[in-house]
Amino acid sequence: MPIVSTQHMDVAAGSLPTHQLLNVDGKRIPDEELDHHLKDLKEADLADFLRDMVVLRRMDNEATALQRQGQLGLWAPLLGQEAAQIGSVRATNDDDFIFPSYREHGVAWARGVQAEDLLSVWRGAQASGWDPNEVNIACQQIVIGSQALHAAGYGMGIKFDGGEQVSVAYFGDGATSQGDVNEAMVFAASYQAPVLFFCQNNQWAISEPVALQSRTNIADRAHGFGLKTWRVDGNDILAVYAATKAALAHARHGLGPTFIEAVTYRMGSHTTADDPTRYRKSEQLEEWKAKDPIDRLVKYLHEMGADVQSYEQRAQNAADEMAAKLRAAITTMEDPKVEELFTNVYAEPHEPTERAAKNYLDYLAEFEGGE
């Protein structure tokens, strides 16, 4: 008999409400706490949200196909999490600095990173596809939860400098079991640093269900550190956007760090090396398909009487354009040269690394063709 069951776990009721501003049928639900954060949103902004999510889903599908065709070494799909990523990043200011995990492709893209530059890392052509200082988003972090510490430190620096930016850390439910994330929240709370910890609870840490990690809502954990906390329907882009606006305002005004648990679902695999059919049931997938974030926004636009067909066509055109450009770039991308292994290891010239590069290149030169 196993020590713990991964299928039937008793989870205590959380102390925080789960905010939902759009239900699965696209009906608007009033929310006294968050509604005022939507007052400046216009129909055109909602159309932009739709375009962003459609383009992002297409990018994700293209990347998965490219990996299957041998063009990428690996890919971490985000299918189903489009609202959590687009809704949150579109609420940030341009000078807020973001520290993502390996699944925040939409956050990077919305910040201005080109899709082909993003995928170049997963192809192995570059160590980083962009300059973090140009778009105020760090490189994707593979080590689980480490970016939370980076965000806490950056936030402390903002406070010491008297800045008005907010440092934002993205991570998944699995990362909340890592010491780094908990230590980051301790430091952020102790120094009252302007940090937003954004957790996309997609229900799975690879094959481990979230109920095995936490016997209460993840948001309650953060609440225990003294962080102002919100729990939202992560497939409701309005709830995500409004809660992120609220959390950023709280941190930006010197009131301390904040935390958002966006409850969503990882519809695809953990990575393209994973087979989720081995550990989850098809019934669960069907349940979450009915909560699809794109379908929900489309229904809401219909409720508003918007010209949904034109918005959907615009989104599809943008997705097609991105996909064509992405595929052309990836399939013709050159492999990195051997000497590039040693570049950008240090910010300043570093004699031991330069010596190691020369020794390695001399070693390769001993072989025919220098390979």
UniProtKB/TrEMBL annotation:
Membrane-traversing stretches: none
Chain ranges of the Dehydrogenase E1 component domain: 52-335
GO molecular function: magnesium ion binding; oxidoreductase activity, acting on the aldehyde or oxo group of donors, disulfide as acceptor
Coiled coil: 301-328
UniProtKB keywords: Coiled coil, Oxidoreductase, Pyruvate, Thiamine pyrophosphate
Cofactor: thiamine diphosphate
Cited Pfam families: E1_dh
SUPFAM superfamilies recorded: Thiamin diphosphate-binding fold (THDP-binding) (SSF52518)
The keyword Repeat appears for this protein: no
BP GO terms, sorted: branched-chain amino acid catabolic process
Name of the molecule in the record: Pyruvate dehydrogenase (Acetyl-transferring) E1 component subunit alpha
Organism: Glutamicibacter mishrai
Gene giving rise to this polypeptide: pdhA
